[in-house]
Give the backbone structure.
Amino acid sequence: MSLSGVFRPGMRVYFVPLVAGIALAASAFLPWVVVGDTALKGVQYTSALWVAALGAAAAILATLSLITRKNSRHPLLLVGLIAFGALLLSWRIMPRAVGERALTVSQAFAIVENTPMGAAPDALAGSGIYLGLAASTVLVLFGLTIVVRRRASRPYVAAEPDDDV
């Protein structure tokens, strides 16, 4: 087997999920929540570890498809859907939870230092969550192409009437 088989016209499309899988895995190491001037990387959260593992799985599936020239769109669709679900929940829940934790810490400092309570710092979703959402969306769309292709490849053909009977 040569390296030129990887670049065959039918298999070049698998570079899309390969890059998306690498981006998905890399998103776990980027900031997921930004509180004030502090960026909290995703690796410290369990969902980010899952996202990193799913990104690695997508990259491995795409690489195996390139090498073996076999289709792996169904597993890539499943990996993309699971990663998208985890990231969507993280995007909705994590900034709020971290913001509440930051408010609690600032209240504790105000009580201990006997100073007036300041405003709670804003907690926003970081670039890691957005990159992960984009990469998982690409994986889902890539996986859905097999559904669209199968649907289009089976056109409806009317049966010819059997008048010879």
In short: The chain has a mean pLDDT of 84. The chain has four helices and three strands. Residues 9 and 121 are 52 Å apart (CA to CA).
